[in-house]
Request: fold
Amino acid sequence: MNQDIRTTYLWLVGNLALANPRSVAFFVPLITLASGGLTLNACSFNFIATGNETAMHLGIEVERIKKISYLLASFITGLSVSVRGL
Reply:
């Protein structure tokens, strides 16, 4: 029973144990750069959390930040999935 729970948990969370080390080494810098892009927008995210109108009044380009963050998060997700495969 415990092995079934562990297997299910690892399947849900994700696991890079069976990934090819060469592909992981190729994708890690790309994931790091994309994560850095999200980190650079952290202050903007804080302003957006107060509300879109408030953030716009403070000079944040809300729609641009949202689009960039969606693209970067999707890029990171896509890279992570492609490293491991199905």
